[in-house]
Amino acid sequence: MMNCLQSWPEPVVRVQSLAASGIQAIPERYIKPPSHRPLSNSDFSLPQEVNIPVIDFQNVFSNDQRLRDEALRCIYSACSEWGFFQVVNHGVSHDLMKGVREIWREFFNLPVEVKQEYANSPVTYEGYGSRLGVQKGASLDWSDYFFLHYMPVSLRNQNKWPATPASCREMVAEYGREVVKLGGKLMKAFSMNLGLEEDFLLNAFGGEENVGACLRVNYYPKCPQPDLTLGLSPHSDPGGMTILLPDENVAGLQVRRKDSWVTVKPAPNAFIINIGDQIQVLSNAIYQSVEHRVIVNSNKDRVSLAFFYNPKSDLLIEPSKELVTEDRPALYPPMTFDEYRLYIRTKGPSGKKQVESLKSPRPLNE
Q: Can you give the residue ranges of the Fe2OG dioxygenase domain (predicted)?
């Protein structure tokens, strides 16, 4: 099955180079069908003041029961109603957040031949890339990225991480350590809110040593026709959860809310957290992974860091037995994350088609 993924189906074009070439019109490959464009008539924009919930995360571990209960309640409603929320007071150093974002901006501003040394292939996606999916002639998104494995340690290969800027590898390692810690705390909150033991979800992911964690650094260059394209097409994240460090100056992430797209306004020094398909499956759809996309603009480029916190890739993921009842039968069949993620790696971002297509036509607990 993996044989079809050995190489890209056509030469890879770096979007940053396209943008820098001074083109006034974007190539046809990047133009989305009218209904998929950022301002198409199918979008009924919500009032601007709507934003995803912002949660003071330190309260989850407060000695004050009232603060703790309130923070957990807010997380529960965000996971079940929005699939997205922001956390502040999360324990990760603000200087580290700022520093790691700057270092990746420096990387993307290096000469293209330096970056090309890290050019990726669809076998593992590790390295410097410009497309998701291997279908020839597919519509392309207006972004480049760098993808790397952080956990499990057996997959962590710092030689595949950028050697320049000089402190990049060291800073990515430190950032990974801190964000994995935050991921573990979030998993506890998610488990407790489902009425499960606090380490339930982490154990379902394979335990602390075995979780998968990878980083995708997104670079969205300026675009001469931002109304015709997207930085990243609509999709839900296939993994467990995503811990996103957004660009601090330029908004671009949009979250689907009913029939509208809400532009997320990042709170200062916040991470944006979203539920992925694997947690939707484990929670038997009590928690929702939600479609999101990225818009681009004509004046400013953007850098964001998406840290994916995933189950060990060969474990079967299925609805937790404790959450399956006669009234709420198991909605999904067991499947490993390895099998699951092949879909997005082959077809590219495609809304919520994948997780929805898994839903069983009949109860699975017979």
A: 210-311
The pTM is what? 0.92
Q: Is the pLDDT of residue 303 over 60?
A: yes
DSSP secondary structure string for all residues of 153-208: GGG--GGGS---STTHHHHHHHHHHHHHHHHHHHHHHHHHHTTS-TTHHHHHTT-T
Parent domain of 330: 29-355
Q: Is residue 271 part of a domain?
A: yes
Q: Are strands 54-56 and 84-88 parallel, antiparallel or unpaired?
A: parallel
247 by DSSP, 3-state: which? coil
pLDDT bin (cut points 50, 70, 90) of residue 40 is low
Please compute the mean of the pLDDT values over residues 195-211 and round it to a whole number. 95
User: Residue 311 has which token pair?
Assistant: 């189950």
How far is residue 258's CA from residue 110's CA, in Å, rounded to a whole number? 41
Query: Does residue 20 form part of some domain?
Result: no
In sequence order, the 6+-apart residues with CB closer than 8 A to the CB of 249 are: 300
Report the number of distinct structural domains present in the chain.
1
Tens of pLDDT along 243-268? Answer: 999 998 888 999 998 888 989 999 99
Flag whether pLDDT at 181 surpasses 80: yes
Dihedral of alpha carbons 191, 292, 261, 100, sign: positive
Task: Give kind and range of the element (H or E) at residue 302.
Answer: strand 302-310
| Residue keyed to tokens 């809304």 | 351
Query: How much is the CA Rg of the chain, to the nearest whole Å?
Result: 20
Q: What is the CATH number of the domain that holds 109?
A: 2.60.120.330
For 106, the enclosing helix (H) or strand (E) is helix 94-108
Q: Is residue 14 part of a domain?
A: no
For residue 362, tell me if it sits in a domain: no
